Amino acid sequence: MQVTETRSEGLRREFKVTLPATELEQRLTSELSTLKDRVRINGFRPGKVPIAHLRRLYGRSVMADVVQNAVNEANRKIVEENNLKLALEPKIDMTGDQAEVEKALDAKGDLDFTVAVEVLPTFDLVDLSDVSVKKLVAPVTDQEVDEALQRMAAQNRSFSSKGEGAEAAQGDRVVVDFIGRIGGEAFQGGTASDITVELGSGSFIPGFEEQLVGIKAGESRTITVTFPQNYGSAELAGKEAEFEVTAKEVQAPGEVTIDDEFAKGFGMESLEKLRDGVRAAIQRDFDAQARRKLKKELLDALDAKYSFDLPQGLVDQEFAAVWSQVEADLKSNGRTFADEGTTEEEARAEYRRIAERRVRLGLVLAQVGSSADIKVTDEEVDRALIERVRQYPGQERQVWEYFQKNPAAKAELRAPILEEKTVDHLLERINVVEEQTSREELFRDEDETKAAENAAA
């Protein structure tokens, strides 16, 4: 086997590999000799089948294995002898026309192919002593705990009939039957019976609940609404529909007293214990948001510190994943790039930059983790697996067995753990300044994004 480097540009390398016909013949004969002792062919004793006969029967299929083994061997040889760290799997291209390839497969001509690889960039880790990031600290207030308890009480309150002739008000429930029509024609999924509508919950199409305010049991109304542009069903999105609604019962919410008895309904021995649990849960949410912001600020600092050539294959792969999600989101929301105030060309350029940033930061974190010898233990992976299993109630056993039977899937759990440990390692080596803030400030960016999305919908 002859291997010659034919290209070296940036992170790209290309090698020409040649297997002379004589070597192909030797490899094929060796494989057939091994096969001779394993096959059973009528008319021949075990191990006595002539090589020429085996070649007629199995020559092409065995040669396919010979070629694949040669390709694998060439890849290993290229990587080991040139001390390369590959970004992606090598790309193999058979050279020559079909006639030349056919001759090689019959071991009557040389086999030529190229191996194109893209290597990981080499770069030095930079000094981060001048980097300073802000860690937001948001204590949970008594008011926030009270509001959470009020929401819990509202979600767990009972409802009872308001009686004959009573009108439905905001906060009441109305049990209804309805038939929905578009253009006078009933549509699939638009008819239902004994549906409970809680007025003011925002659970139904915008405008539906509001038009039920004041309805009485036994009363029928025709309600006109427009399905949102981002409605789940493309056939209904953006269309105006009429619903013929008949109220069967109007129910009023009962009073819920937030006391020790209320707390026992949640498995707590007292209201004080419930308040402590609620406070701790809210604090975990605050801390998780603060961590996300702290990590983003750190990654922004790293992105500003590093500049090196990127493996375009990795960037292309990352961009494809990002772009696929962008297109899926636009389609599900019934929106276009024009609705987002941009063009497809501008969006592609922006998301290409995002893909490049992700690849760059991924390589930096990987080198930091390797240099610091950061490891992920089996116990940490098992804990992550348990958390993943808990996300699928009722399917715990199937999910657990899937990961146990698929080492690659289980290995994927290591990546985010390693990333978080590497982030912790970096945070210990830079200046982290704590700053007190409120819930509103902590979640301001997310709240503004949600408000914009709701307004656009």
Automatic annotation (TrEMBL):
Asked if the record carries the keyword Cell division, the reply is: yes
> Where does it mainly reside?
cytoplasm
Q: Where in the cell is it found?
A: Cytoplasm
Gene3D superfamilies hit by this protein: 3.10.50.40, Trigger factor ribosome-binding domain, Trigger factor, C-terminal domain
Regions of compositional bias (Basic and acidic residues) in chain numbering: 438-451
Sequence ranges assigned to domain PPIase FKBP-type in this UniProt record: 171-233
List the GO cellular component terms. Answer: cytoplasm
According to its UniProt record, the EC number is 5.2.1.8
Stretch list, region Disordered: 438-457
Question: Which keywords does this Swiss-Prot/TrEMBL entry list?
Answer: Cell cycle, Cell division, Chaperone, Cytoplasm, Isomerase, Rotamase
Instruction: Give any single GO term for biological process.
Output: 'de novo' cotranslational protein folding
Q: Broadest EC class?
A: isomerase
Listed under catalytic activity are: [protein]-peptidylproline (omega=180) = [protein]-peptidylproline (omega=0)
Q: Which GO terms label this protein's molecular function in UniProt?
A: peptidyl-prolyl cis-trans isomerase activity; protein folding chaperone; ribosome binding
- Which family, according to UniProt? Belongs to the FKBP-type PPIase family. Tig subfamily.
Query: What functional role does this protein have?
Result: Involved in protein export. Acts as a chaperone by maintaining the newly synthesized protein in an open conformation. Functions as a peptidyl-prolyl cis-trans isomerase.
Entry domain remark: Consists of 3 domains; the N-terminus binds the ribosome, the middle domain has PPIase activity, while the C-terminus has intrinsic chaperone activity on its own.
Q: What is this protein called?
A: Trigger factor
